[in-house]
Amino acid sequence: MHSWEAFGAGLAVVASIVSNLGVNIQKYSHLSEALRPTAARRPYIRCPVWWSGLALVVLGSLGDFAAFGFATQSLVAALGGGATLVANVVTAQRLNGERLDQTDVGGVLFVIAGVVIIACIAEPNVEYPLPELELRFVRTPFVVYITCVGVCAVSMLATIKGSVANRLKNQVDWSNKRQKKLLKQFDLRVQRLEQRLLDMEVKLLQVSTSASVLPVGLVDPPAMSTDLRELIDSTSAEDADVNGEAVVGKSTSRVPYYYAVCSGIVGAMTVLLAKCSAITIALTLKGDNQFKYGLTYIFLGGMFVCILVQTHFLNMATSSGDIMTVFPIFQACWITFSVVGGAVFYQNDNEPISTTDKVFYPVALLAIALGVGLLVQRSSSSVEAEAGRSCIGNGRMKLSTSDDDRDLLLSADASVYSPLLLAGAHEDDGPHQSV
User: CA triplet 189, 191, 192: central angle to 5 degrees?
Assistant: First the structure.
């Protein structure tokens, strides 16, 4: 390994640690937001803490981008991925309080072993001019690789779309929106009912005491209106919390893992485009201007688009799953697709694959696959049990409060009780004699 390649490898390690710290801060933002009432929760892009984590992620990405100018794509991806896995074990425990299981340790060790093997057999760094890069993008092996990657990403997204957890979440969101709409309509009916009662009292007072001044209390709506609206808001929030916890308790699918895989696939494309962009910038600095080609801007624009998509998928994964498991899966897919993509992209047609690559690349990828297999076995039974107990407890509390409040709600509903009847009298109880 040359001195500049060693510098690039060290820069990749530091950048990956900084980026992992940013991802864990974003996970902390997701956890903090989940503790807020459902009605007060915000999208992650509106949370200041999340943006501070994104700043570190961007800083780490810039470091990775600079590292691509000094070292090969496989070396940067392998060493950076291994360093961030070790950093994630420490940061996830300290910052987010996630436990470390034996399967997590074994999975991380297998992934790191595969990463070390890839780093040892990484090919030397070569800078190709832009016309040569353009020809490599249309080579048959790379076209086949891109097609397979696209099919894999689409299948993952289709699995997420059709998963039970996703359908349950959509049903709960629809139910909460419908409930809020009905409660707003109910609130309007209550206000109209109060106004009718107020008008009737005013008319009675005008008939009986036409010369007297009306009491001030009759000008404003009764205090019951404010109390009832507070009851409606609290009931809506409690129902939404219970429904959300029910989804967490029932959802045992692997949707966070699917999001992590999608993020890793898109991240591998980010690596390839970043490497090509770094090559064009390096050649331009050496005097060979590459910005006269339109493909250079496609590289840069595609890289930024892939970064945005990768960040979104990773946040979807970390917000719905444990970062101790989700992040290593993302890193494993990111490293695997980056290494395979780099090998396919930079392999020359007239050069046969060496025996070392034929042996050690499959061994490294197998070690990474075994590590991912151990990571997805992470037991979440205690988390589900806790969510179930919380859901049951909230359900019982909601049931008791709803029994106590039913009379208050029904007595204010004009469709159930008539304001002209005596207090506590139902319309179906038969005729009553007016007072």
Answer: 65
